[in-house]
Every structure is written in structure tokens, then in C-alpha cells.
Design brief:
Length: 117
């Protein structure tokens, strides 16, 4: 299950309106790279692949591919603003280390070998 805070939901809906496609799905994926081993990737789109899982979080549909699913199980996505600007924040119970930006992380050892493929 993925959780999206009300603040993050508002920002996602605002960004989706800028896309001029109110029906866009939010795709969440885990990709290699970043300050640590893995990073989150968010994008809007319409296309669904056979291996995708769709979660409905309030007013947002989140699409996650099967490879990323286990690594984001229990993830909470938040949005906050500070002196440096606004950004999404990720709280992942599967992460053992997280960069200050919260976009990049290292998985607990039992998961890290399952992402590559």
C-alpha cells in the first residue's frame, strides 16, 4: 500500500492540471542512481503496462511497476516547502539510508538484490 498525504495530493493535482490532462496517472518507479543506490522517479502518463499495479490514493491514481512494488511497499509521499523551495518527501520503511533530499536511498539488504533486472 502507498500513502499520499493531503498536502502531497494537492500538489500532485496542481501539477496534473498543468499537464492539461486531468486523467493522467502518476507513475512511481524505483531506478538505480542518485546520491545512494536507488532513487524515486515520478511522472504523469496514460499508458499502463501488463506488469503495472494501480493504487487509488484519495483523488490520485498511482501506477507502480511490479519490479518497484516491493521496494515502495508502505511508502508515504508528502510535500513540503522550505527556504529552498517545495518538493516531495518520501518516507520508505524499506530504506536503510536516505539522502537529505529523500529522493535517493539504499534498500535494506534483503531487498536490494530484488530490484535489479
Amino acid at each position: 500500500m502507498i500513502h499520499i498525504t493531503p498536502t502531497a495530493t494537492q500538489e500532485i493535482l496542481r501539477l496534473r492540471l498543468k499537464q492539461r490532462d486531468a486523467g493522467s496517472l502518476l507513475r512511481l518507479a524505483v531506478q538505480s542512481g542518485g546520491c545512494y543506490e536507488w532513487s524515486y522517479h515520478l511522472e504523469f502518463g496514460q499508458r499502463l503496462e501488463p506488469e503495472d499495479v494501480v493504487y487509488r490514493c484519495d483523488q490520485v491514481q498511482v501506477v507502480i511497476d511490479e519490479r518497484s512494488l516491493q521496494q515502495v511497499e508502505g511508502l508515504t509521499i508528502d510535500y513540503s516547502e522550505d527556504l529552498m523551495g517545495g518538493g516531495f518527501r518520501f518516507d520508505n520503511p524499506n530504506a536503510s539510508q536516505v539522502c537529505g533530499c529523500s529522493y535517493s536511498f539504499t534498500l535494506k539488504s534483503m531487498h536490494s538484490s530484488q530490484v535489479s533486472g
